[in-house]
Amino acid sequence: MLVLKAENLRKIYGKGENQVKALDGVELSVEKGEFAAVVGTSGSGKSTLLHMLGGLDRPTSGKVYVDGKDIFSLKEEELTIFRRRKIGFVFQSYNLVPVLNVYENILLPIELDGKKTDRKFIDSILKTLGLEEKVRSLPGQLSGGQQQRVAIARALASKPAILLCDEPTGNLDSRTSQDVLSLLKVSSQKYTQTIVMITHNEEIAQLADRTIRIEDGRILPSRGRGMV
User: Fold this and answer.
1) d(CA 85, CA 109)
2) pTM for the predicted model, two decimal places
3) Cβ atoms within 10 A of the Cβ of 177, count?
4) Are the beta carbons of 17 and 188 closer than 8 angstroms?
5) Which of 6, 52, 151, 205 has a CA that sits 20 to 30 A from residue 219's CA?
């Protein structure tokens, strides 16, 4: 079952000679439970693509469907609510609230949405990500890897249709990066969580189920198994 689909997605900045095609007719589909990595160099369009897929920015033309919904048919307020309920984000910067402890940070998006908290599910996430002993700790008392685990837990807590990760290990050392990526993969498998991760790192991309390559705003044709 398709959870994410992009159709002829274009994002153009500037006009005339100064025109830049950040995305140039991107077509992309991701199945439920799939862990896909989008690989590209700096300036390839991968970050722009992630922002479009997550409804953080609107395309010049084209459509994005998340869980069957054309997200850009929504008004801004509707899109904000849809994004909060259906799309989880994990960025390089952990974006944790410094005055809230681990548990409070994880629950924050759910409480903002006025939804009932599934305590058993939260406890399961905490156990999976190895955060059970850190629930009362403040972000400043945690290592970078632990903070990123909290960010992942927060993103998973609302049971989003899709989890979008923007260079999630960019601020971590290589060993911690491997740990965090392994936990992402475990989360994908355990919770049938759909994940799209952008990265410039080929080794990191190998941990995903499928590698998608982007260059000059275009998805490159498949060159082998596990690639689109």
Assistant:
1) 9
2) 0.89
3) 20
4) no
5) 151
